[in-house]
Amino acid sequence: MSQQNRTNETKVLVLTLAITLGLVGGLLWWFSNSYGIKDSTFTKIRVETPNTDTFSQVPNVPTGLFSYGGSTTWAPIRQQVDSAVTIVWPRFQLRYTNPIEAAPGSSTGINMLLGNQLAFAQSSRALKPEENEKAKQLGFTLKAIPVAIDGLAIAVNPNLNLSGLTLAQVKDIYTGKVTNWEQLGGPNLPITPYSRRQEAGGTVDFFNENVLGGEKFGSNVQFVHSTTPGLEEVAKNPGGIYYASAPEVIGQCKVKPLPLGRKSETLIAPYKTPYIPPEKCPEQRNQLNTEAFQTGEYPITRRLFVIVKQNGQSDQQAGEAYASLLLTAQGQELIAKAGYVRLR
């Protein structure tokens, strides 16, 4: 075979190989794009993971007007969350509903939910057995979905010279066993304990169960309608004491939150130290001791719940959607902005 023929044959083989490789490459590219086959030789298909951290990515948000109500502890969260939800889901309309006669609170809200007055409820305590039983009698069940962490703070008059209290001492005050601050190392001054009534509030239920151990309030306890008048009474009464959700107390200028502990040698402040005295407020305000609440080092912490009917209807969809919105990164950030502790 001549040199010329061998050269021509080589060119044909090279051309044939190039065409074959081109066809194979093209087929592989087509398969990889059509069926998601990945190979390091070819451009990889980019698969986006759905972003579920924002309100806009929450599925199954219903349309319509939904009434809800319950815990007064939730008020700062409602202020932060509801307007933000409306911006993203304008057809998911939320309306906070106050009770007609009873004082607002977790218990009242759950009773209104059981009475078909609300689509879902907000609670600062877990469900009670009798509430679950009543729901079953009505043909459905209740589900409590935790969305945030909160705690109770003890407020006293800013002029009271006291380093803190143990839980046992708080119990003795509210059951009437201790009636003068001198008995606790303070000044010779009568103690005036204030509280909301137990039948309305989840905070009072929680306090009664976890601090008082189920014992009754002493006869010296004075009852107020809500936290605002309770704090006002403490601000003007040198011997006053009141308990409420920590975010409602910590940033106040006219009362002093006390460190608490299970033992006197381990008192934990509900605020970030150093303590900011009232004369520097409102330019500076005390901030929640978030870390102590998250770890449970602070002795009176609890979870906040969305209470949802499990009835397969739009009310259930609304309650579950609302809880899902709060559990997104966006919702948890708004909860933290409201002064509460993130669950996630």
Could you explain how this protein is built, in words?
- Helix 2 runs antiparallel to helix 11 (329-337).
- The protein is of the alpha/beta class and 344 residues long.
- Helices cover 36% and strands 18% of the residues.
- It has eleven helices and twelve strands.
- Strands 1, 2, 3, 4, 6, 7, 8, 9, 11 and 12 form a ten-stranded mixed beta sheet that branches. The protein has a two-stranded parallel sheet with strand order 5-10.
- The chain folds into three domains: 1-47, no CATH class; 55-147 and 311-342, Periplasmic binding protein-like II (D-Maltodextrin-Binding Protein, domain 2); 150-301, D-Maltodextrin-Binding Protein, domain 2, CATH 3.40.190.10.
